[in-house]
Amino acid sequence: MSSVEYLKGIGPAKAKMLARLDIFSVADLLHYYPRTYQDRRENAANNGLNPPSLTVFKGRVLRTQTVPARSVLIFKAFLADAANNQIECTWFKRRTFRSFRFDPFGTLKKDFKINAEIWVIGRKENRNNFFDNKITVEEYYPANAPETAYQTGRITPIYGLTEGLTNKQMRQYMHEALFSAEAQNEPDILPPALAQKRQLLASTQALKAIHFPASLAELENARARLAYEEFLLLATAWGVKRTQTKAIAKGYGYEIKKNLLTPFRKNLGFDFTPSQKKVINEIFADLQSPLPMNRLLQGDVGSGKTLVALSAMLLAAENGYQSAIMAPTEILAEQHFLTFQKILKKLKVPVAVLTSSTKTPERKKILAALADGSLSVVVGTHALIQDDVKFKNLKLAVIDEQHRFGVKQRAKLKEKTAKLDLLTMTATPIPRTLALAFYGDLAVSTITQLPPGRRPIATQMADEYRARHIVAEEVQKGRQAYIVYPLIEESENISAKAVSEEFEKLKEVFPQFKLAMLHGQMSRTEKESVMKDFAAHKTDILVATPVIEVGIDVPNATVMVIENAERFGLASLHQLRGRVGRGQYDSQCILVAQHKGSVARERLSIICQTCDGFKIGERDMQLRGPGEILGTRQSGELEFKAGDLFKDRNILQWAIEDRDELLKDDPLLQKPEHAPFKQRLLELYQKNWHLIDLS
Ligand code: ADP
Ligand code: MG
């Protein structure tokens, strides 16, 4: 691979700047795709590509003029465009000492000779005046200059830049690179049969067209081809990994003894919903199969996933195995612990909770009990994946609210033991194609119904005054309420302070009621006692940060007020709303928004319109992009350059189908025509192979 430094026009200084964009080799440069494009064709249709203030035209110079001013120097050129409109182009230069000796407009004067034909790209100075023909020039190209052919008069690439680089330079480098040996010899790694089946552009052609497309249609074809390649590589990596791991049986089995499961179900006080029964059967079948389980359990907020997980964990306990459930927040871990403890005490199954605020002596005891196998069930947070946490006999791991964990954290829990059954749970459902792309051949179970008696939660936008009125009304009736404030700048610290201030104010607003406060900076015992008091209706109103987003379960609470609702993501709003409507009473959720911009409004109105978490999840995915939601964006492990997992769902679907076809024909990619593809696959994923291995 040759370094960009040796490309014409790039020296050591520019190479350093390019390195900041992770561009080191010519190949890196070629695969640095444009961020967007401008339509710089003559008479470009208004196709939404260009911002309204952008002006692009080829004109003829009528006259030029230098305008002296006190601190700046101004050069003006008057050009006639194709329709013979006169357009005034302006350049500004700061007056410097140098400008007394060198004419800063020397080059301009040379280029803007009367009657010269010139391409001008600029911005309208006064955007309000339709008839204003004055523009500030950003780039210009004499019509007969060689670089003009790729800089303008076409659909022109716009790149993400770094300090010291301009788009003009980037285009020049890219144009140079496209004529280099690297670009000419860019291997077409796609399996030929698949490329033909999908009628995809050849690799060299796609690469050329993604930078300098001849038309919008060609651009779309190029993008599709490059996205397909990325998706096919990922899908195949999963596929190969699956064949590798499938061959290895887990080497242990489960027997349904029912000595714990039967009393557990008897003690519950209610029946599982048919939907819960169905997914429990699916999970038990996986557990009994000789291959390790890798199942995602999807179910809306409040659909009863916890008890499904506990059923599986009890089956593990019946067989003398350890199981662990990992939750993203301490509050949720505590809540699970309380639920589990209540149930498991009667069954004489030992359970403990491990979080980062577990005190050292207690932590030591728990670690010892996990290591000698005497503790069968453990509930915890990230604290569970610390290196010194060792299990004697861990066979089942459950990850709750899995989308809140990064790919790496999920992988880490799995590494605790050689072979493991894995159940991940989420209320933010993932479209099947995405699930396949991200988690390989993952099995998915879905709880499609809520426990009986649940009613939709009436949701509205209202001002603070009205929200407080509703709170008072409900509390007078004997119900309870939550008032939630957003995290401020991601900092629990500042948020705790803000909530404390609001808490003091609210105590004055509601002198007749008992208020309590909950935030992440409180000690574990404090939090525990606040939660217990609220559950026992010793307090009426709980004022909190989003720490309560998951895990609080108080059936008597019927109002959820969310302050600064515009600051929350859709999934969070839905989760928060799910804290009410858990009992026999009608419940409501009130969104108090500060800025009512149209985007915020649209998002909030989605929440008001539907209580269906699956619909909300889909909209969220559209608005924020899947990377954000699946927790892969920060970690950057599964980033795509050309493909967009959401917009290119169809291409992803092709890639998954074709992967199956490819591996059926050639499971280990040994055929000579698949060699380039295999090589690229190894280059890409060898480093991250363990991340791919979730099966
Ligand atoms: P989520 O799926 O959001 O994690 P939870 O597991 O927290 O939901 O369950 C929400 C509430 O519903 C809990 O109080 C739980 O005890 C209750 N629940 C679960 N299953 C049933 C059922 N089949 N019938 C009645 N209540 C149920
Ligand atoms: Mg849950």
Q: What molecules are bound to this protein?
A: adenosine-5'-diphosphate, magnesium ion
Structural class, from secondary structure content? alpha/beta
The average pLDDT score comes to: 86
Q: Between the first and last Cα atoms, what is the distance in angstroms?
A: 35 Å
Outline the low-pLDDT stretches.
628-637, 690-695
Counting DSSP H or I runs of 4 or more residues, the number of helices is: 27
Shape: globular
Note the beta-strand portion.
15-25%
Can you list the strand order of the major beta sheet? 10-11-9-12-13-8-14
Report the sheet with the most strands, covering strand number, pairing sense and barrel closure: 7 strands, parallel
Radius of gyration: 31 Å
| Strand segment tally | 20
* Helix fraction bin: 40-55%
How is this structure best summarized?
By secondary structure, this protein is of the alpha/beta class.
Keywords:
alpha/beta; globular; 27 helices; 695 residues; six-stranded parallel sheet; binds adenosine-5'-diphosphate; seven-stranded parallel sheet; binds magnesium ion
Would you give an account of this structure?
The protein has 695 residues and is of the alpha/beta class. The chain starts with 11 loop residues before the first helix and ends with a helix. Residues 628-637 and 690-695 have low confidence and may be disordered. Bound molecules: adenosine-5'-diphosphate and magnesium ion.
